[in-house]
Amino acid sequence: MHSQVYIVILADILFNTLQHKYPYALRITYSKPIAMKPFYAVSFILFFALTFYSCTSPGASKQEKQTELEAFESMMSIHDDVMPKMGEINRLSRQLKQSFERMDTTDRELMGKIDNTLRALETADQGMMAWMNMNAGGVLEKMQAEKGHEEIMAYIKSEEAMIKTVAEQMNTSIAQGKALVEQMTAKE
What we know:
By secondary structure, the chain is an all-alpha fold. It has helices at about 1-20, 35-55, 60-80, 85-100, 110-135, 140-145, 150-185.
């Protein structure tokens, strides 16, 4: 991308320099054939600049695409490991809500624990849903068509860190929920 910008800037500088030095150089006239030489020089440079530009299109090499695909699949494997736990989050939330509704309201400490655990379960659930919305089908292909390799790898790295955080939230809230359900079952 940067090389393309440099070529355009170089061509612009050369064009402006020739235009000031040879004001008639860019006029196509047959009465002054000597004035045509800078025009041919500019045409020659622009031809090679455009050729170079087309050869260095933003498309990534096969190796870069393979690296991107492997990183993306690694990120998705983390998602695939924790996604089945969404059902467990929903089950624990239902159990805790039912227990909360039928429990003695004098036990404020236990009510607070249940409320905090329900919030943690809900936060983990919302985190997973938000992450999945950001990485809906075809996101890698769209990015490969629009962005460069470094930008894609940075995106995958940040999303991988985010799904790891979501996985940690899910595992922690599930552990809290299970412990609380066991504690409440033991009390009954």
